[in-house]
């Protein structure tokens, strides 16, 4: 059984398109709303991933960069 | 304010005031609350003499614990007092969760099928204590001493010496063992100079217990951000006598002295209840902390219940874990007092119950962090969960309005014998042993304070000190019991007196049973 690790090679099918969609998503929102949107997005994506080890690794890598 | 009339129990002049006693009592319990009284009854049932000291002469006043879990009812059933609690209490096993005005989801604590006791009953603590006190009267071995206040305690390797103040003066008692069940401010803990560390939470909550006629079903209702109390949470519970517990989150800046004034409370209740008439039973403002002693054993003194550990009220983990403390300790004390087990067995009380308490604190802290987010980031995250939960089932699992108390598993206990092979379920060593239907009765019907062997169509030899319960396929036409124990023909379980699993086997082996039994007694 192979241990799952976080995917770090390019995985987004349309990088420019996705980035653009994300920026669009924030349009006309104030700071509080952006925060809420980000949190909702994290939760939706986290549910898609599901795996606790992968999520833990993502949390760690996100935090390391700050 | 309240409709319940507190009984007044008689103070009797202790004999030691007139003639100093040189007797060493086996067990003295400090505190006649739910935990101390449960311990006293259990000791008496096992044939031990016990003195219970209480500085007051009545049961608890006002709003305290209300939710009593299935495991607690099973313990009280063994002590012969569960039926009264059930008759008076409000049975429930459904929780509903609202965000704003919307019912987001409801949960069932357990399937109602083939359960002897409900997941919970709600019953005011004063009734619980009253019924336990009245049950104590059935046992001459219990010497319940009201208006007996502990003012001094010291111990050496042989005994604990207590100094007790009464209306007639001070006297001394010597005991082999002391159970300190004297509450969150535990005078025993203070007198022994022991620390009680943990985390203090700033949020304040308003409790209003009100009597009213309402059509609400017997369910736990929890609101985040309801229209009648914007930005905060509210909890509603039905108790006996048509009393409702309503718990309003007030935030960290609320002034308790102001908020408990009825002219502040009434508008809050009216906003929630509309034009319903209600009478007050109790109003108070509280905040809470989560604390746990490093060890519950200190020489010959054992700490139990709130004296040893406290949690937030979310999850009904205070009173229930205290009763389980008593359940865990008493059979061990009994065996050691009878010289049937070494005193090392007593060490396992703290070894098993400290992790249980820490687990309760862990759950309770998580609930608290969800209900009262500690910073803006966690508030945003919490609000994101709530906003998603309305539309998407996945987010409902993230809502934490209190994970409700269940019997503890003693995962790392030295008393358990590890499985030799993989099981596909059932009750693992250390886990609480489930009840279930057996013929036209229940597996745990009737007294049973000893070690037991459950034999699922297994031929077993008798063993001294061990009671065997044979369970045939025909005895369990529902199949529920077999399933709860992941049983196959030949399966054997060894249960401790507190109905936790000590060991289990697919095939009976007398020698293995003897070894596991010795291990379960720390011998």
Radius of gyration of chain B: 24 Å
Structural class of chain B: alpha+beta
Q: What is the tally of helical segments of chain A? A: 3
CATH class of the largest domain in chain B: Alpha Beta
- Backbone shape of chain A: globular
Helix content of chain B: 25-40%
Greatest interface by residues involved:
A-B, 9 and 11 residues
Q: In total, how many domains does the architecture of chain B comprise?
A: 3
How many DSSP E strands of chain A? Answer: 0
Report the end-to-end length of chain B measured between terminal Cα atoms. Answer: 54 Å
- Regarding quaternary structure, what we see is heterodimer
Order of helices and strands of chain A: HHH
Architecture blueprint of SSEs:
The complex is a heterodimer of chains A (66) and B (523).
Chain A: H1 15-25, H2 31-49, H3 52-64
Chain B: E1 24-30, H1 34-45, E2 50-53, E3 67-69, H2 70-78, H3 82-88, E4 90-92, E5 94-99, E6 102-108, E7 120-122, H4 125-136, E8 142-145, E9 149-155, E10 160-166, E11 169-180, H5 187-191, E12 197-200, E13 204-211, E14 220-224, E15 233-239, E16 243-251, H6 256-259, H7 262-273, E17 279-286, E18 289-292, E19 297-298, E20 301-303, E21 309-310, H8 318-337, H9 344-371, H10 376-389, H11 393-396, E22 437-438, E23 441-442, E24 451-456, E25 466-471, H12 480-484, E26 492-495, E27 501-505, H13 510-520
Parallel strand pairs in B: 1-2, 1-11, 2-8, 5-14, 11-20, 24-25
Antiparallel strand pairs in B: 3-7, 4-7, 5-6, 9-10, 10-11, 12-18, 13-16, 13-17, 14-15, 15-16, 18-21, 19-20, 22-23, 24-26, 26-27
Helix pairs in contact in B: 1-4, 1-8, 2-3, 8-9
């Amino acid at each position: 059984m192979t241990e799952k690790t976080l995917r770090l090679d390019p995985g987004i099918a349309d990088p420019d398109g996705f980035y653009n969609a994300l920026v669009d998503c924030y349009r006309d929102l104030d700071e509080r709303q952006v925060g809420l949107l980000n949190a909702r997005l994290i939760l939706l994506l986290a549910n898609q991933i599901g795996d606790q080890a992968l999520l833990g690794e993502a949390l760690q890598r996100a935090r390391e960069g700050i | 304010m309240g409709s319940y009339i507190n009984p007044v129990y008689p103070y009797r002049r202790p004999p030691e005031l007139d003639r100093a006693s040189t007797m060493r009592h086996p067990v003295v319990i400090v505190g006649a609350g739910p935990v101390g009284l449960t311990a006293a009854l259990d000791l008496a049932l096992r044939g031990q003499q016990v003195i219970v000291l209480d500085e007051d002469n009545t049961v608890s006043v006002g709003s305290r614990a209300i939710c009593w879990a299935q495991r607690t009812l099973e313990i009280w059933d063994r002590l012969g007092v569960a039926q009264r609690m059930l008759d008076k209490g409000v049975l429930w096993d459904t929780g509903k969760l609202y965000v704003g005005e919307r019912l987001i989801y409801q949960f069932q604590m357990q399937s109602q099928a083939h359960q002897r006791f409900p997941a919970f009953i709600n019953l005011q603590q004063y009734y619980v204590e009253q019924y336990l006190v009245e049950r104590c009267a059935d046992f001459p071995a219990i010497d319940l001493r009201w208006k007996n206040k502990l003012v001094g305690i010291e111990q050496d390797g042989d005994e604990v010496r207590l100094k007790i103040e009464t209306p007639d003066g001070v006297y001394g008692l010597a005991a082999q063992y002391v159970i300190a069940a004297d509450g969150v401010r535990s005078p025993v803990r203070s007198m022994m100079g022991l620390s009680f560390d943990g985390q203090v939470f700033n949020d304040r909550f308003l409790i209003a217990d009100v009597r009213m006629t309402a059509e609400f079903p017997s369910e736990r209702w929890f609101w985040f951000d309801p229209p009648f109390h914007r930005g905060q949470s509210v909890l509603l519970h039905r108790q006996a006598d048509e009393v409702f517990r309503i718990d309003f989150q007030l935030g960290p800046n609320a002034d308790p002295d102001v908020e408990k004034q009825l002219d502040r409370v009434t508008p809050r209740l009216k906003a929630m209840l509309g034009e319903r008439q209600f009478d007050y039973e109790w109003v108070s403002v509280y905040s809470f902390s989560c604390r746990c002693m490093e060890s519950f054993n200190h020489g010959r003194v054992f700490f139990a219940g709130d004296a040893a550990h406290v949690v937030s009220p979310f999850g009904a983990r205070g009173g229930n874990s205290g009763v389980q403390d008593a359940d865990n300790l008493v059979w061990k004390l009994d065996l050691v007092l009878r010289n049937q087990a070494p005193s090392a067995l007593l060490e396992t009380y703290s070894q098993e119950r400290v992790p249980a308490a820490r687990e309760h604190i862990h759950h309770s802290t998580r609930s608290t962090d969800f209900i009262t987010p500690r910073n803006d980031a966690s508030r945003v995250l919490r609000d994101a969960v709530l906003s998603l939960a309305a539309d998407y089932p996945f987010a409902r699992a993230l809502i934490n309005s209190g994970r409700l108390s269940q019997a503890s598993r003693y995962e790392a206990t030295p008393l358990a014998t590890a499985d030799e092979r993989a099981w596909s379920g059932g009750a693992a060593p250390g886990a609480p042993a489930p009840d279930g239907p057996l013929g036209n009765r229940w597996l745990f019907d009737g007294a049973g304070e000893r070690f037991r062997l459950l034999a699922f169509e297994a031929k077993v030899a008798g063993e001294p000190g061990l009671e065997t319960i044979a369970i045939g396929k025909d005895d369990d036409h529902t199949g529920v019991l077999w399933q709860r124990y992941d049983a196959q023909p030949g399966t054997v379980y060894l249960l401790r007196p507190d109905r936790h699993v000590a060991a289990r086997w697919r095939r009976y082996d007398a020698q293995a049973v003897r070894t596991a039994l010795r291990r379960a007694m720390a011998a």
